[in-house]
Amino acid sequence: MAERDAQVATLTEEVAALTGQVAKLTELLNRNSKNSHLPPSSDGPGSGSRDGKAARNKRKSERKRGGQKGHRGSHRELLPIERVDIFVDLFPEVCLGCARGLPRVVDAAACRYQQLDLRDHRPCLTEWRRHEVQCEHCGTWTRAAYDRAKIPSSAFGPCLTATVALLTGAYHLSRRKTQRLLSELFGITVSLGAVSAMELRASDALQSAHAEALREVQYAEVKHTDATTWTRAGKLMSLWTIASRAATVYRIFADGCRETIEPMFGALIGFLVSDRATVFGFWTMALRQVCHAHLLRKYVGFSERDGPAGDIGRELLQLTSLMFEYWHGFKEGALTRQELQYWIRPVQRDIERALQRGVTADIARLSGSCANILAHRKALWTFVAHDGVEPTNNHAELELRDFVLWRKRSFGSQSQRGERFAERVMTAVRTARKQGKPVLDFLVRSVAAHVAGTPAPPLIDAGASA
To answer: Which pick of 104, 203, 337, 414 has the fewest CB atoms within 10 Å?
Structure first.
């Protein structure tokens, strides 16, 4: 009898262990970008909604694609007169009343139609000639001296260099596609080595712009930060961004350790919006805002489990949804800051109580997460009291999106020089767009200033961050 009881106890333990293992594997199998930290690109086909089965069973709409009947539609507005290059005036030949000829009189209220097109896309080639002249008196032939100040050292001008940098560094075309595009669009033939050389020249020209943007985000009152992976010749690297309202900065490091990235943040000034990564331990907790979108995905994962874990997850999910509802009401002007604080206060209390119950429940893969979230209690509600602070880190995640797609297409960079080019071009382009500057014009002026040895144009206008 004792032997049978021991055997039953052993089997019971094995069943419990296997049940826990199955639950863990099932949870891992069901992970996606909606209930974990995984990126959306990791989701498989048909996972566009939280309930893929419900999406597949949804009744297909009988409406046709496009604008529906009664839809007002949208139309392109006419450009101002000063933008028009060619005018074509059309006059009636005869009067509709008496059939007599009509004079050509300009009508101030004429019906206007416009067509925008591309013409004369031809390269502009400049040639410098050092002539040799014979002296009339002594017969000596003298050739003009080679003047570096007058004759450029590169075969490619600032505009072409900036265009190549924009195509490869901002629109992420491969060098071969850039080479083909220049040939097909402009009739310009360049080698792959020349494309690489123009990238290097643009990178050097944008070094000061990158430093300027970095100073801007370091002293910004509110900044968002996030990281993802990058590769250099197959070696795993760490790509970071810091983004404020006025600027966005990118840096690529050998790793994402605290000692490596901390100098990028400079002095501990302003509020930092981020996730709960331990690497941000150097920032004062009271001046941080933890991303509630990350927490929401964590709660979705909890809610999909059985038993008490699912109950706690669904409660946290409901409370967080209510919190976002109040926040959106505040953003839309339906609530004042004082009203937001009043309505959020009981939600904050209930969320923290639910998290505390999760800690005391001692549930695997839940209690530890709840304890970690509570450890960031001071950084959960900064957005409620301070202007400019958002409850999510969507800003930084969106700023990284283009870089992630670039990495997937090109597998990163092949050298440190390539990393500096990627950092500087992307920083200059994203910041220039935030500043409302014409991107190509800024790149051209930066390259021209670098070639001439003059100060680089400012990337950030005075008072832009105010």
So the answer is: 104
Model-wide pTM > 0.90: no
pLDDT band of residue 152 (cuts 50, 70, 90) is confident
What pLDDT, in 10s, does the model give residues 252-287? 999 999 999 999 999 999 999 999 999 999 999 999
Question: Average pLDDT, stretch 27-54?
Answer: 59
